[in-house]
Amino acid sequence: MGVHCVAFGSFSRMYCFDYGNRHCYQPKREHERAYMMKLAESSEKVIQQNLREFFGLLRILVNVVLIFLIELVRFLGKSVFQVLVVGLLTTAGDHVLKPFLVAVFNSLLQPLLLFLLNVLCSVRNLTYPLIDILKGICLQLALVLQAFRLVEVNIQSETPLAQKV
């Protein structure tokens, strides 16, 4: 008469089979879990959940402050600093840069360019007679060379073109 014990799931229940009679035997553990341990586990879960909620709220508050600061910087950049920088650059350009460029052009660039214009016009006027002399010489030389035939080209075909077709 053998009794076979089979463990099922957790070890708190043990099923015994004896000649077809089946009944459930529940053994008690030697020591029960302490109530404080159960309380500690459940309180740990509650505290962890509450801390998650607290830090979620803290994250929302930090995001509100950061978004406010970002929008403040954007507003100041577009509305205040951009207007100031454009105004300062326009004023500096009108009152400093333009007079400086006018002074440089009138004192240095314009006299230098006028001097170069006068020099080059004088060189052109001086070379007109020389160019006329060279023109006359080249015309005479061209007439002499035109009389000589350096190459003579004669093309004569042996058969008329109509017969080649």
How would you explain this protein's 3D organization?
With 165 residues, the chain is mostly helical. It has a domain at 1-32. The chain has helices spanning 35-147, 161-164; strands at residues 4-7, 14-18, 21-25. The termini are far apart. Keywords: Membrane, Transmembrane, Transmembrane helix. The chain crosses the membrane at residues 54-76, 96-121.
Q: Rg, please?
A: 56 Å
Q: Approximately what portion of the residues adopt beta-strand conformation?
A: 5-15%
The helical percent reads over 70%
Q: How many helices? A: 2
> Separation of termini?
129 Å
Walk across the major sheet and give the strand order: 1-2-3
Q: What's the total count of β strands?
A: 3
Low-confidence stretches: none
Order of helices and strands: EEEHH
The largest β sheet comes out as: 3 strands, antiparallel
Oligomer: single chain
Average pLDDT level: 81
Write a brief caption for the model.
This protein has 165 residues and is mostly helical. A 3-stranded antiparallel β-sheet has the order 1-2-3, with no helix packed on it. The chain starts with a strand and ends with a helix.
Task: Summarize the topology.
Blueprint: E1 4-7, E2 14-18, E3 21-25, H1 35-147, H2 161-164
List keywords for this structure.
3-stranded antiparallel β-sheet, mainly alpha, 165 residues
